[in-house]
Amino acid sequence: MKIYNTLTIKILLVLVVVFLSGCSKEFLDEPTNTAGIPRAVVFSDRDIVQAFETGIYARYKGQWDNDLADGVNNSDPDTGGLYAMYFARTIKGNDLIQRPTFFLFDYSHENRGASFRRTRFTWEFNYEIINYANILIDGVENSPDLGEATKKEFIAVGKAIRAFHYFQIVLEFAPNYNNDRTVARIPIYTEPTTEASVGNSPSSLADVYELILSDLKSAIPDLPEQRLGKSYINKAVANGFLSRVLLVTQDDWSLASSAAKAAYGSDAESAVVSSNWGEGFNDLSDQDWLWGHFQDGSNETNFFWMAPHVFTDHLTLSFQATYANTNFRDTFSDDDVRKLFRDIYNSSTPYREFVTTKFAFTFASDVPLMRKSEMVLIDAEAQYNLGNEPEARNLLFALQKARDTNAILSTNSGSDLMDEILLERRKELYGEIGVEWFDAKRLRMPINRDDVHRVVVNVPADSELFYLNIPQTEIDANPNMDASVNQ
């Protein structure tokens, strides 16, 4: 077993400068790697611990390279940070279409092999961040210099980060939680590891989700409301994590609702207000955004291929790789501000008929990772499952009328109401977090493509195509990971 981390004896230290621009947008200078600071020094001072946390978030945006010390960037646009994993999910559905370029194998559902780059990246990236989180928790817990309030805060941050990334791993490498909770594919690590560490045996899905929920429930009370910027995890973001996890476990809809409300602020009508629609969807300062990647547009360009903007924008010099399904476009009313589809190519090829202008690419394009509008829709789904359909309709309508002034309060009930909520999730969140794939997997639904697509592939409910094989590198290095795990 080899844990891919760069923080063993020496620790990744980053420096951050926070200032407010004239347009009231918080800017963070790109953290720089100054490896070599002794562990005791890093965890002796609050500001340095804060810089360590900032470095973790910076890694979310970097291009994947399992050897940061060799001076060579061995990465590709489809194996970046968190955004690459989300976009790989995004183009597995029916709503968007990918031309033959980066992410093409994800689009074709052909990218789950044990030796593939997608599989290795997704495994190694998430476990790397988990190890950073464990180092943070351990270093803060054992520091003789930090005060108790500081310790509680940063331990909570570490637990929220750890929970978030175990959630990503279990989504990517295991079947649906409610298929069989005894399935064991994911090793658990709650202590820092080194390259000499022996890999743990895989734990059951039940145990992995127990850790995720335990981490989040213990972290949320100790997380602050305030933060340096929206790239940072605070109490609202962690509540958003919790509500997403509960969409999968489906065993505590009351908590899913209360967590979502805590994330969006309880007032749905004010929460869903957004000025990003039609403006490029690239501004972190929008009040609807809870969490995202900040880009300063100057010193982050060398390795910047950040999805979704650089792939979906056809009006700017970029990859111009992603198209919109005509049938998905037709689900939007003409008065919906989200109906941002254009026929710019006048092509007779069905899949090239429309592109979306939702995302505008520049090197300063911020990337959405979580929005209040998503939380309102989670609350609506929770109310539906609690049997409170009138409130579910009201929450749904709060978003619908904010996007279309001519929207009418839904009269749907039962499965029709649930279908409407799911459609609204697709219309609101397309291109952002892989919502179509996520909902199909957690609700045990198929992904069926229509013939507009460049590659027509149908994924049955509960198909193995909903999860990746365990990387061969992990099987070879971990004596406790049986090769039969991929059979």
From TrEMBL:
Positions of the RagB/SusD domain: 365-482
**Key word Signal present in the record?**
yes
Record's keyword terms, sorted: Cell outer membrane, Membrane, Signal
Is-annotated flag, keyword Signal? yes
* Pfam families xref list: SusD-like_3, SusD_RagB
**Main location per UniProt?**
membrane
Q: Which residue spans traverse the membrane?
A: none
Cell compartment(s), UniProt: Cell outer membrane
Family, similarity comment: Belongs to the SusD family.
What protein name applies here? RagB/SusD family nutrient uptake outer membrane protein
Q: Which organism is it from?
A: Flavivirga spongiicola
